[in-house]
Amino acid sequence: MHCRPTMLHRSCSITAFWLPVAVLYCIIVGKADAFNYTRLSNDCNKLNWHIQQDRSLLQQQDAEISKKDVAVTSHFFAASAEKKKAVVGGFFQEGSADPDENAEFLIENSTDDFGERLGASSDSSILQLVVGAKAKAFRYMWNGQAFQQAHVIQPNGVSDEFGRTDITCSMDHHCFVSDTKYSNDRGGVYMEKMNKWLVPPQGRSSEDFGHSFGVSGSLSGGDLHVAVAAPKADNDCGRVYIFNNADVVGSHNPEPSSFVTPFDVSCSSNDVYLGDYGTAINGEWLAALSKNDLEVLFIYKKDAQGEFVNHQRFSFNNQKDPKSVAIVGNMLLLGLESWDVPRSSSGGAGVYLVGSDGNWAQSTVMEFSNAAAGDDIGLNIGLSSDLKAIVSDDARGGRGAFFLSDLSCVSGAKGIAALTTAAPATTTAAPATTTAAPAT
User: Fold this and answer.
1) SS3 234
2) Spatial CA neighbour of 6 closest among 27, 37, 36
């Protein structure tokens, strides 16, 4: 059972002066104006909550919360404040998709670029948050009262890009961290618990392998899939390499069993950069978002032989400015940035579902009507196994904010069964002190 403290406590800034370690953390819990909560709607197909940090949370206005990354699980949500070397977040109410306004957390760390990328996973007994920084990543585990640093992930031979490119965790809590410069620019995705690297085929390098990637299934369930984008492959056309469960288990440094490429677009006249703006996979479907001006979403489907084949593509033609993608169950979520208003009159996220004909179609676009030029709404998104969504909004006078939505009520939507579905229990106990994190 998870226990959530219910009162404000923050002492890490004091202990930093005498602790013999460079890394520290603190926890803020309780309604103490750490966040300003605004309920926007109770309806499906809309952004439900807008959560903005209070000016006092990180002491300065320009925290830029959510600009670098966001994460969400069935139990909690998090947003980076990399400019302040911090991560902020909170919990969902038990049995609800609404945030618990009396339980919030703040993790601070003195490492350069802390908060650049986030990965998260949770079930009834484990809440895990992995935070990327320069050349390393930090795993924090919920101990019943706080997210406590459990391990520093820093394998030998990594570049400064390790921890700053992409991080994803599987349902059974295996976390993957990419490094596009690993092994003399060959690139790789590190599986920390197995101490092995997923790498591109022999003879291929400088493809930006690992720029984005997606993970679905679990090793414990035997259905793990990892899709790794290499946007600069084939003269900037791009590839997405696919590793299945057998690939990962069968070799010390596995190479992919297959790959996909762009289709119905000319790579000779367009630098497509497949997967540059995001890659997602759910076992049956693979989605990759290109960077080129055509703004194409490519969708691939697993056939009877277990191979991913070309299925469907959406070209946005500079209309909606998609910048991120997630896929869970039969739902695909696209982050729609509103940087170039009126190119996209309001930012938010597009929801797509698989229809009875086996094709994807847009169900709705969740928009924020007050979006303005410079609001990076939709730059980062997250989607949990039970279809809780988080959407970034890093403007708001530099402080940053994010949206939460419950998409499980969208007609026809189906998430995936979590390993266990029990939510954390609440408690009235609070930590007496803030404890120093382990030394690096």
Assistant:
1) helix
2) 27
Quick check: 403 and 391 in contact, CB under 8 A? yes
> Residues 79, 81, 87, CA angle at the centre, nearest 5°?
55
Which residue, among 116, 148, 191, has the nearest Cα to 380 in the 3D structure? 116
CA distance 107 to 109: 7
Q: What is the DSSP string of 8-71?
A: ----HHHHTTT-SSS-------SSSSSEEEEE--SSTTS--EEEEE-TTTSSSS---BTSS-EE
Instruction: Write out the two tokens for 43.
Output: 């309806």
CA separation for the pair 228, 190 (Å, rounded): 12
Instruction: Tell me the DSSP string of 185-216.
Output: HT-EEEETTTTEEE-PPTT--SS-TTSSEEEE
Tokens for 436, please give them.
Answer: 């120093």
Token pair of 142 as six digits:
């919920």
* Residue 286 φ then ψ, to 5°: -130, 135
Q: Which two tokens stand for residue 91?
A: 């919990």
In whole angstroms, give the CA distance from residue 156 to residue 335: 35
pTM of the model: 0.86
* pLDDT at residue 21 is higher than 50: no
Compute the distance between CA of residue 345 and CA of residue 304 in angstroms, rounded to an integer: 42
* Span 24-71, pLDDT tens digits: 444 444 344 568 888 888 887 778 888 887 655 555 556 778 888 999
* Alpha carbon distance 159, 135 (integer Å): 6
